[in-house]
Amino acid sequence: MAKTNTFPRLPSAFLISLTVIFLFSPLAGAKPTTFSRNLSPESLGLRREKLSHLHFYFHDIVSGRNPTAVRVAQARMTNTSKTGFGAVVMADDPLTVGPSPTSKLVGKAQGIYACAAQDEAGLLMVMNYVFTEGKYNGSTLSVLGRNKVFNEVREMPIVGGSGVFRFARGYAQAKTHTFDLKTGDGVVEYNVYVFHY
């Protein structure tokens, strides 16, 4: 009688598992194919969040030989809106400590504002406050919101920032300090309250 080797019979589920492990083991060391991952705030050096209050004056100069805000688009001439609906203005307005134009410069308001309401003076504000003074030098805050210019106090959201204001959120309150009906120039007082790290 011939001698035969008898091996214990392995269950088929075990064989399938071994095959899967063998075939897909090279993929185990591959980098993930997702484009996002969760991080802890500490991994970016973020510590405790703080609340800061900034107070400054925004000078919107549309007249004279060197305006800081210029109209770059407007609605067709057939538009009879008394609110300027459709007008778009590009701004690089000074931000100062006090209401005087010769007051200390602390930054610039750079961006656009557009007449976005047909039946009232309502602006769409898309602005970056670019700071040039003290610990905020080189940092920015971004505003995106509605400015109903004839209200005594207007509130607009702070939607982000950079530098010291990375991960910023908060709001800006605007109050007209002076407005010259003849030239269209205005000075607006701003109080900004912002959470940041």
Condensed summary:
With 197 residues, the chain is mostly beta strands. It is 9% helix and 44% strand. The protein has one helix at 12-28, and strands at 50-60, 69-73, 88-96, 105-115, 122-131, 140-148, 154-162, 169-179, 186-196.
What would you note in describing this structure?
The protein is mostly beta strands and 197 residues long. 9% of the residues lie in helices and 44% in strands. It is built from 1 helix and 9 strands; from the N terminus they run αβββββββββ. It has one helix at 12-28, and strands at 50-60, 69-73, 88-96, 105-115, 122-131, 140-148, 154-162, 169-179, 186-196. The protein has an 8-stranded antiparallel β-barrel with strand order 1-3-4-5-6-7-8-9. The chain is elongated and about 100 Å long. The termini are far apart. The mean pLDDT is 87.
Strand content: 35-45%
Q: State the strand order across the main sheet.
A: 1-3-4-5-6-7-8-9
Number of strands: 9
Multimer state:
single chain
Number of helices: 1
Overall spatial form = elongated
Distance between the termini: 85 Å
**Helicity level:** under 10%
Main sheet? 8 strands, antiparallel, barrel
Instruction: Write down the secondary-structure element order.
Output: HEEEEEEEEE
The computed structural class is mainly beta
**Mean pLDDT, all residues:** 87
The Rg value, from CA coordinates, equals 30 Å
- The unreliable regions are none
